Structures are given as C-alpha cells and as structure tokens.
Amino acid sequence: MAKLERYRSPSATHLLAHVLENPGLVAAVRELPPALLGKLIDAVGLESAAELVALATTSQLERVFDEDLWREDAVGEDPRFDPARFALWLEILFEAGESAVVTRLCELPLDFVILAVARLVLVVDIDRLGVELSDDEEELELVEKALDSNACEEWEEFRLIAREQRAFDTLVTALFSLDREHHDLLRKILERCAAISGEYIEDNGGLYTVLTSDEMLESDARAERDDRRAAEGYVAASDARSFLALARQGVGTPGQRDPVMRAYLRELDREGETHSTARPASRRAARATTPKAKPDVARLAKLLIDVTGTAAAPVTALVPSAAGPLLGRALAELQVQDPVLHAERLEELSFLANVLIAGEPNAGRRFRPIEALETALGVCDEALLAELGAPHERHTHDSHDARPHGVYSHDARLRAAVTLVRSRHLDELFRRGWHDRHAPGKRR
C-alpha cells in the first residue's frame, strides 16, 4: 500500500540547487522581475547566492539594490544607505572574477557608485591636506593618530582612508581593477568623492572629526532611488508622510487630485512610455491586467512563492471583490461599464495602498500589501457612504426608486455609488475618510 506523505515546500538550499541544475530556470533568472529576484536571493542567503548574482543582469541588480541597500529605522522614516551591506555585495560580485566586478561598476549609475565609495572610504587630496595642516601642529598630531588606526592607500594625488575597515581591501581591489581598464572613470569617481569629503571636512570641524564620524552625504542617491522606485509603483516615505499628514488635517482642493498622486501617475505614465507607444489611458488599462509570463519564469516564481510564502512588489493591479464594501461593488460594476476609467481607479487605489505601506505604521510594523489594500478600500468606502448620506439598505418591489432622506434601495444605492465613483478620484475620497477617522474624539 502506498504511503501518503504531506507535501513539503522546497527549502531555499534545494531551490538554489534546482534552479542551477535546470537550464530553463537558469535562463529564467535573467527575466525575473527584480522584486522576485531579490526574494530569491533573500531565500537563499546573499552569502550563498553568488551564482545567482552572476546570472542576474545589472539592471536587475540595480533595482534589487534599491530595496536591499537602504534601511529604515522605523516605518515612514527616510531610508539610509547601508555601506556595510554594499561591501558584502561587492565580495559576492568578486566571486565571478575581477573583470565581472569592473563590468558591474561601469554599468551601475555613476552617482550610486560614488555614494558607495564615499561611504566606505574617505578620499582626501594629499597636497591640499598638507597645506591645511601645516600651521596647526595639534590638529596634525590628532590626524596622524587617527590615520594610524585606519587602513590607507594612495592613488596618484589622493589618499583613500578606510571608513569600513572590513570592506577596505575588497573596495581597493575593485577600484584598482577599474583603474587598469577605465582609468578616467576611476579619476572621475575619486575626484567627486574628494570634493564630497573636502566639503564635509570643512563643515564638520576638520579631518579628525570626520575620521571619527559616521555621517555622510546621500540625499542625491536617495532621490534617484526614489525616482526609480516611483516608476515601478512604489511611493517614497517622505511623499507618503506628506500625503497622510495633509489628509489628516483635511487639506486638499475638492475635485482635484493631490499633488503627490499626480506625480505618482506621471511616473507610471513615463515608465509606460518607455515600453509602449499606446495612449496613456490604454496603458493604464493594460496595467490593470497581469501580463502572461513565460513558462519557465512563471515556474521559477511559483517555486519562490512556495519557499518564501510571498513575493515583494508594490501593490498593483488590484481588483476588489464584487462582494463586500460598497466601493468594491461599485468598482466591479464600473469595470463592466467603463474598463478604462476602472483601470484608472485601480491605479488610484494602488497608490493609496502603497502610501499606507510607505508612510503609516500598523501596530508598530509595516502594512502588508493585503492589509494596506483593505485599509485604503475601507477608508474610501467610509467617505463614499458619508457622501451618499444614510447607508441603510431597504428593499421594496421597485428597487430602482431612491428613498426619501437619502435612503436608497440596494440597486439604487449601488447606481448612486457608481455615479459618484465615476466623478470623484479615490484619493479625494480617501482624504475625506482619513480626515474623518482622525477627527478629535473619533475612535479608529
């Protein structure tokens, strides 16, 4: 008699072995959405994922870095670049050889590379440093003591001083490898880093203070990261905080979209223009349906979900149920009547869910996508009910007649909701609902 066994999802180790042994899945790695690739690397563990990293395209890794190399101390705070994590990534990249590292550094955005180098080493102009310290023996002595405890290397007129001691040798090896094939690029990187270091030294009390400080400039790289993520549907923490704060205060112009929402939709349209010549409304309708993945990519994604239980991605292509909240039923009806407008409303709902994920803690943690969607839908639904008046549903033989005093029959109420959703952006409804939820004395 055959023995029945409970299905066990594959471990991360088995998943990695299965991928590397299957030519179809190996090719599929390069076509995975970056969010899924990041989850795959997380499942395996970065230290064990060198072969996967070698298979990935630089474009994929750039998006993975946007998620993996930035850390938030708390939900809603601006993320900070993690240089130690980048140093680990650099070590993993080196497992594919020096030439592979050089190729990656050349392909990654220049500002990102400069940020990473500036956070791992302090770059100073040796001649300029000598002039500045020549008249201050006390400062010179302090600097010399600080330098004795920091690893250093010289390249032409620059001195590279370690800020992350464990990463120093790996970084210097990468930079000197870059020098052999791309001397001018390395000069550009180190000149920018020296300018950053010089300004920072001047603003923060001298080289000794800087050598014993952990702060560095990263706002430009953070802004570029936010731009890339915005094109994928994410919302920056600063934008999310601003939107929610204004909504809580009841700030907003009736009948108009919030400026943060308008910027979000512009980014989505700009991203769509790079992949399609269709009109914006057509692109929005297309984004409301999930494209069919190639078989091997779909199979790899399924294996990944079996291991991790989920896949990281912004909330997109959301389809509320025809049952449940009135807004969900109205959107389902709108999908039948006007698919293009329905797709636009789904983008608005996606934006609201991503705002909650980025800017609003949920019991001390980040909202999960389904929780954010349910909350956004609930807030908008409360505002919709308030706009329609009394929410009571009473049925009669003539279900199409509106009842006095704002009381609707079931069908008439649904029609009224669809009419309102046609004319009102969901971010406007959300602003009203969020304000009402946070009104003084209101229990959430």
Please provide a written account of the structure.
It contains 23 helices and five strands. The chain has 444 residues and is mostly helical. The protein has two domains: 12-222; 314-437, no CATH class. A hairpin with an 8-residue loop joins strand 1 (70-71) and strand 2. The longest helix is centred in the middle third of the chain and has 21 residues, at 183-203. It starts with 11 loop residues before the first helix and ends in a 7-residue tail after the last helix.
Q: Can you tag this structure with a few keywords?
A:
64% helix; single chain
| Biggest β-sheet strands, sense, barrel | 3 strands, antiparallel
**Helix/sheet category:** mainly alpha
Spatial sequence of strands, sheet with the most strands: 3-5-4
Discrete helix count: 23
Order of helices and strands: HHHHHEEHHHEHHEEHHHHHHHHHHHHH
Counting copies of identical and different chains, the oligomeric state is: single chain
Write the layout of secondary structure elements.
Blueprint: H1 12-21, H2 23-29, H3 34-44, H4 50-55, H5 58-68, E1 70-71, E2 80-81, H6 83-94, H7 98-107, H8 110-120, E3 121-125, H9 126-133, H10 137-148, E4 152-155, E5 158-162, H11 165-181, H12 183-203, H13 207-211, H14 219-231, H15 237-249, H16 259-273, H17 280-287, H18 295-308, H19 326-337, H20 339-359, H21 369-388, H22 410-423, H23 426-437
Antiparallel strand pairs: 1-2, 3-5, 4-5
